[in-house]
Amino acid sequence: MADPAVMNRYERLTAEQMDEQRIQNVAYQYLCRLEEAKRWMEACLGEELPAPTDLEEALRNGVILAKLGHRFAPTAVPLKKIYDPEQLRFQAGGLQFRHTDNINHWRNAMTALGLPAIFYPETTDVYDKKNMPKTVYCIHALSLYLHRLGLAPPIHDLYGQVMFTDEEINNMKLELDKYGIQMPAFNKIGGILTNELSVDDAAVHAAVVAINKALDRGDVAVTADALKNPAALLTHLEEALMSIYQQVLQQAKKRKAETAVCQRGAPEDKDLYEEYLSQVEIQNQIHTVNVRLVLEQVDEALDGADELALLAALQMPCLGLGGILTENGPWYLDQLLEERQQKALDSEDPLEVVELQESVFVSNLRAQKDRDAYAALHCVNVALHGSDPRHTVSCLMNSELQLPQVFPSAADLYHRELQQLQSRTAQGALKQEELFVAVEMLSAVALINNALRMRQQQQFSAALVCPSAGISDVDADLLLRYFDHLTEVKQRAGLDLLSWNQLQEGIDHVNNAVKEEHQQLLAVSSINRAVMTADKQQLLSALLLPSCGLEDISPSNLSRYLTLLSRARLHKAQVSGDPEAKLWLGDVKAAVKQANQQSQKALKLCLAVAAVNQAVKENQIKQTLRVLALPELQLQELLSDCAKEYQRQLNVLMTQRTCSGDNKSPWVQMELQDGSTYFFHLKNLKGSWEAPDRFIPNSVFINQQEIQEVVSRVSTAHTRNVLWQSREAVIVGLQARFRGFLVRQQLQTRCHYLQRHSPAAVVIQANWRRFVQQRAYRRRLRFLSMNWRAAVKIQSVVRMWLVRRLYRDRLRFFRCNVAAVVKIQAFFRASRARHEYRMLVHSTAPPLSVVRKFLHLLDMSDGDIREEAELLHLREEVVRSIRFNRQLEADLDLMDLKIGLLVRNRATLQEVVCHCKKLTRKTKEQLSDMMDVERSKGMKALSRKRRERLEAYQHLFYLLQLLPVGSPPTVDLLLIHVLLPVTQPEPDSVELQEAVSKTTFTHDLNNLDTATTYSIYLKAYTALGSSQQSRTVMATTLGGVPDPLSFFTKVLNQTAIQVYWELPSKPGKLEGLK
Picking from 371-385, 590-604, 816-830, 869-883, which range would have the lowest pLDDT averaged per residue? Predict the structure, then answer.
């Protein structure tokens, strides 16, 4: 049935509009014929020809036509006879009269090939473009003729498969109007060829019989000669495959003979072609062998990665592949290798022809896409050689490159960085992979700069850690420091955009700073640990670490370092109130500096004291006074007037000690003001804070305190004498000062006492704090004890909420998996029932619970069980008979359609007979059981209506055998073939056919089964036969109301009934059962 919308559209058109539309359709059909002729000549000549709109002009010089004649008749048209084969003269000066020789050579080649002269165009039709449609018509006829001879590939029908612009169609319409001739009937070329050639059917029959007899003899040479017989009209024969042809044809002939033996009726009905292969079957087997061989060649070429061999195999005529381009060989190889690897996952079969065609189409698209990408890449490289960043960005934004997002605001960054990258390449141009990686990285850099400019820390963090940025050593914990440092770098440099190198340098700078801080923390931690454990070697190793940044570390001062660091730590613990207080790097540096200063001061003090002792020994008063005045000694109350007395007192003290005994020890011990002890060697003039081994102090040496006592005593006596001579007020002042000194001395002593007993103070504080915390804890415990009911209630509410949430999650899981739960329960119950049944059968004393479950079976006898089984069997037989009757009715309806077509001369008698044999072969096995039952009844078993229909068929066949067949009709016919259903495994599935008019473009298929998948294709029938089937379309009908279910019940016991059912034959998409 035609679409009403389409009919209304045509009814509204005026006569002029319909005429205009018809002319445009003619122009489009002629353009399609030109495209078909172009592709066929390209396949034959192996070279690219102009577009269909320019093909007519390219054919006028006859060069292409002469080359076509040389391709199939080289003796009639030698290559040297072709005038201007490279078309250089034609391109320089246009057409010349000698170009008509090329057209005549082409005509001679067609005469040599045997093409009927009715198709030949005149020389002026081509040279002067008087009738170019006749030339294209002749090329189509030549292609069909050569294809029948097996010399050329077939020409493909491209009507409706190629697209042309409105301008091209209008230009061709104007050209056809200029010709003023009627368009040739391209679709009647086959019939005209058949009438003109007048093939001898007897010769074909004799050649086919000779081939079958040669196959029976089994001689390859005889079979080859029979196949090469021109009267057999076999094409695409390969000499190297004759033995394979013989094997395949023998197997096909053997299968056909076996089938004929199974289906043969009376001996007088025997047909020669029931056992012999026909010409069409032989040609099909040859084509199958050729295709199989070419597919193997394709597979071998893929194994060896041989591009040339692959192109040669793909261009074989037997495959009939279209769109093969020589320059796309690498893409064909890669695509077919990928397709074969994909198919190898499922099967080991080679690629099919359809898969090859799809791969060729995909490869052509991929090759064109790669060429477009290469052109866009070339534009980018050219733009980078220039100085316009905006042009570079516009080239980068070309969609053919498939680059990441490009930001026009960062045009200078893209241009500058890509120029540097291009200059570093060896060939001076960027490749696709290099450009993709660079643009991806630069786009990420642009996002980072944009985040810095907008001061968006979140966007900056996301862009910085993005893998496409390519920035290494990014620590997620330092993102804020990265942001601050890069912002500072950007402001300090005065740049709008930071490059990738600048970003990486900033990240490395922050990481190094953090690393140094971390190393300093480790060093400080090591110092604190050494101080707490009093490990001098560990302390020395930690102080010498470069990360500490300490200078002038002397191993001789190690003890002083430990002492001062311990004091600093204790002081910090007292100030902060934290016993675990740690020293920082500043504290360590201050202590080391102080220790170095104290060491130098102590050394200078020892040198000064040694100088005093030496001067006293030498008994030089002036030298002794000068040495005593040294600032390192820090002597108080030193008076120059008492120099002689100083010398005498010190000399007396030294003499006394010498008399007591001189041990000649080189070591002396010096007590400093802070209470520390310094050891000094008198010979090498070096000191140490640690006591040397077997230390014995020098018994004669006078230390700084003794010198101070002597000086103080002498100065005091001298001062007292002077003071007694002065005023009394001065004496009072001196007493006051002395008392103040005593008080300060007592205070200092008290401070030293507190410092020495600081751990005890810390313990006291800790005990007090423990008491306070225990008191607070007891109060809290007392509060909870008083309010224990509220606490229990809160705990119960929380636990209830947790249990409820767990229950809801479990319930939601069961609802989502209810089908699996039901199946598990069914399996469990079935397993338990089997176990109990075995226990009932095999156990000597089964439990009472098991016996109660199977007690209802005692009411059923063996006869009841057999009757129930027989009932189920009869139900299955009824269902099978109903389905068979439905199928048989469909076959009979199709047979009626075939007979109707036969009566209207729409189909031949042979097709009807073939369908009848097919129907008989299909239903023979299914009817065997029924025929055994009905064989004794004969015609009486049929109803009256079926008996009348059988008699009418017999009379119709009798008339068809007597009446001559009329002339073939001129009206074409379209048949819609419906194969149902496609999921049936039988090779001869039921096929429905519906005839439609050639002027109808839509048709409705009614009375189909619900929820069934059909395979639909279209075939055109003419007086000369049927066309090849169209592309098969798969369609599935919607599900309707399902058929009634087969419902059964079974009594289990006194309180239980088992219900079971069967789904309908075509349930469709069931939503559930109730």
Answer: 590-604
SS3 974: strand
Question: In the chain, count of helices (H) and strands (E)?
Answer: 37, 10
DSSP alpha helix (H) spans, 757-861 = 758-786, 788-816, 818-842, 848-853
Q: Enter the tokens of residue 269.
A: 């009905």
Tokens representing 91 are: 């391109």
Sign of CA dihedral 821, 824, 828, 834: positive
Question: Would you say 624 and 650 are in contact if contact means Cβ atoms under 8 Å apart?
Answer: yes
Q: Are 162 and 111 in contact (CB under 8 A)?
A: no
pTM for this structure? 0.36
Of 739 and 404, more confident? 739
Contact 678, 755 (CB under 8 A): no
**Cβ neighbour number for residue 90 with a 10 Å cutoff:** 18
Say which residue, 76 or 589, is predicted with more confidence. Answer: 76
Quick: pLDDT tens for 532-561.
Answer: 777 777 777 777 766 666 766 777 777 777
Is the separation of the CB atoms in 400 and 372 below 8 Å? Answer: yes
C-beta of residue 633 within 8 angstroms of C-beta of residue 609: yes
Q: What digits encode the pLDDT tens for the residues 233-272?
A: 777 787 777 888 888 888 888 887 787 666 554 444 345 6
Q: Residues 850-884, buried b or exposed e (16+ Cβ, 10 A)? A: beebbebeeeeeeeeeeeeeeeeeeeeeeeeeeee
Q: Using one digit for the tens of pLDDT, what is the confidence trace for 97-134?
A: 888 899 999 999 998 888 888 889 998 888 888 888 88
Which segments of 321-478 does DSSP mark as H helices, in order?
Answer: 329-344, 353-385, 389-396, 411-424, 432-454, 457-464
Q: Where are the alpha helices (DSSP H) in 218-352?
A: 220-227, 242-263, 279-304, 307-314, 329-344
Please give the helix or strand (H or E) that residue 1022 lies within, else none. strand 1013-1022
| Separation between Cα atoms, residue 432 and residue 453, nearest integer Å | 31
- CB-based contact 89:49 (threshold 8 Å): no
Closest CA to 986 of 887, 873, 882, 881: 887
Question: Nearest to residue 290, comparing CAs of 345, 237, 217, 343?
Answer: 237
| 141 token code pair | 């006829």
